[in-house]
Amino acid sequence: MRSQDNFFMQQGFIHFPRHACPLDMPAIEQALGRLCDRARSENRGAPGIVSVFEANNPDLLCRIEYLAGSDAFFADVLVPQLKTLIERQIGQAVNLFKDKCNFKHPGGGGFTPHQDVVAYRPFGSDYQVTAAVMLDAANETNGALEMAHIWGCGNNEGEWVTTPRGKQPLLPRYQGGTRNGDISDRLSQTMQWRRIDTAPGDVVLFDSYIPIAHVLTARNLRGASCFSLSTSPVKAIFIISTISASGRRRMIRCSMYQRRRCIAPVMKPTALSPAPSNR
């Protein structure tokens, strides 16, 4: 475990095969099924689950959020398990910040290179670690995660933030427009990427400063349309934790989900959009 700890602290991500981090996958699928049924049947926009449906198919879920606030299994079992896993890596206590399940459908778009922290900082949290629980296999053909494992940023570029992994940069990025938050092409073209092929039950931890993308079939890092042309879907649960002080943890999570419910009606990517409108 010590070498794994060091890998995360040095690289900003780590992949745990299912046998190294055993989770109750049947229970996860059952709990998720309950939430999906509720999301389809409840009054959309009501307090509780945040549901996002495909723009060209209003009955097809592409994302649900607020899992732990909506089902006891996530709150009492899965989130505490992943919380412990994250704390072993960074050596600090963490609190739940955001939780969601993404449904990537065949032909759907991928995410271009970005840092998650850019979307999360406005809520008063400067460092997050995501635990991705893979419910389906993910690989080059259907939308595996990719992490930049060799990349450089000069000390004079961007803003540097103190994190549990030392000083980390907020990388040069586009602001506003259709590419808001994407890492600049000039920098992303210099990065070397590692695709994380996963099987059902695998867990991938990554922090919010590591450059991340979904697999880009044509290796297109210029932000142009990039589609997964597979016939197989990918489901993954993302549990995002923050090291914010305990006195602020509820305020941060509540603030974030109040805003998410306000914008949920417009968070509707089409089935073939190059990237969802909100991460």
Explain what this protein looks like in three dimensions:
- The structure is a single chain.
- The C terminus is likely disordered.
- The protein has one domain: Jelly Rolls (Sandwich).
- Strands 1-10-5-12-4-3-2 form a 7-stranded antiparallel sheet.
- The longest helix has 19 residues.
- By secondary structure, it is of the alpha+beta class.
- It contains 6 helices and 12 strands.
- The radius of gyration is 18 Å and the shape is globular.
DSSP helix fraction: 25-40%
Reported CATH architecture: Sandwich
Question: Which fold does the CATH topology refer to?
Answer: Jelly Rolls
Q: Which oligomeric form is depicted?
A: single chain
Strand order of the largest sheet: 1-10-5-12-4-3-2
Count the strands? 12
Q: From N to C, what is the helix and strand string? A: HEHEEHEHEEEEHEEEEH
Write down the overall mean pLDDT.
81
**Gyration radius, in Å:** 18 Å
Structural class: alpha+beta
